[in-house]
Design goal:
The chain is an alpha+beta fold. It has one domain (2-124). Helices cover 17% and strands 52% of the residues. It has helices spanning 2-15, 38-44; strands at residues 21-30, 48-54, 57-60, 64-71, 74-82, 88-96, 101-107, 114-124. It has an eight-stranded antiparallel barrel with strand order 1-2-3-4-5-6-7-8. Strand 4 and strand 5 (74-82) form a beta hairpin. The mean pLDDT is 86.
Length: 125
């Protein structure tokens, strides 16, 4: 509950930034590979989510605070989230503005393996 309130506050602060852009993303495909089942995969990659990007800061209504870096016509967005047994898991999204598509994946704790994740499209406003 506190995380949600803090994320909402940060999201609204960034909403007023002049140079910020808002990505409204829809997940169209989720891979259950590496997960117990499809529902577990969908718990990491929701059907719809928003990300406000301002400079190198990213704030999502689903993932919370993260970082964004533009390189070679792509935006690389990373969120570090708490997972089981006091470990951290990175959700990495690659957004390609030219096609308005994104690809998401998970890095497991210790970067042992990546989970294929999800893909979809985003509108920019």
């Amino acid at each position: 509950m506190i995380k949600t309130a803090l994320t909402a506050a940060a999201f609204s602060l960034l909403a007023s930034a002049a140079s910020a852009e808002l990505l409204t993303c829809k997940t169209t495909q989720v891979s259950k590979s590496g997960f117990v089942n499809l529902a577990a995969a969908q718990s990491w990659f929701p059907e719809e989510f928003k990300i406000r990007i301002s400079g190198e800061e990213a704030v999502s209504d689903f993932y919370g605070q993260g970082t964004a870096k533009n390189k070679s016509g792509r935006t690389y967005i990373t969120f570090v989230l708490a997972s089981s047994k006091n470990t951290k898991t990175k959700v990495k999204l690659t957004f390609i503005p030219k096609t308005a598509k994104f690809v998401g994946r998970l890095n497991s704790p210790g970067n042992y393996a990546q989970t294929p994740g999800a893909s979809g499209s985003c509108t920019v406003s």
